[in-house]
Write a structure and sequence with these properties.
The chain is of the alpha+beta class. The protein contains 7 helices and 6 strands; from the N terminus they run H-E-H-E-H-H-E-E-E-E-H-H-H. Helix 6 packs antiparallel against helix 7. It is globular and about 55 Å long. The model has no long low-confidence stretch (mean pLDDT 87).
Length: 243
Amino acid sequence: MIQELDWSVGQILATLDRLKLADNTLIMFSSDNGPVLDDGYVDDAVEKLGNHKPAGPYRGGKYSIYEGGTRVPLVARWPARIKPSVSKALISQLDFLSSFATLTGQKAPVDAALDSLDTLPTLLGESQQGRETLIEHAGGLAIRKGNWKYVAGAAAGKKGAKANTGKAPSGPALFDLSNDIDESKNVIGEQAAIAAELSAALGNGLDDSRLHYALARALRRKGRAQEAEKHLQLFRQRKEAEH
């Protein structure tokens, strides 16, 4: 699959070069999750792995809440606009919608892209400032803030995925990614205040504006249009106040 991926990307780039469109075309290259070896396919991935570590230094892989499952590469290429650089800014693929809306002079509807932030300057390499926080979900919930990562509960990942998740914590865990990139040292006991702050932020991230929107959709499906409209109005008011 990787060979076909390499070939396909090469074909796209070659076509842009041939049509003289490469300099003014934005290309985004990323992944939807961390690596997985045994995902039900008979492709000799495990047998041919050798010493290769698909997730590099990170713990876990696909289906895991750890960095090996949630942290993915992202390459942005736009020769006429983006200068070569490396960024450690925290962003999410959810941010693409709001960012591309800004890039194209559009305004995303207030009831769309609920979790999407405009991180266009970061994507274009014009800023090193990304999100302040990012909520992650993979068999459980976690939140990133700077170098801190709070995992709300045990999340070992999918059995059979061959990901090195190690022994999952029996309860909440806190990791300092600045010096523990493989998430092997749970420092929740030593940093209880930070853990409490992130736990509260995780709860607040699921704010009532989104609950109103979810309720409106559920009520509309049940044919209760008037009640649904009330929740939609509350949702729009909260979203407009945020902007």
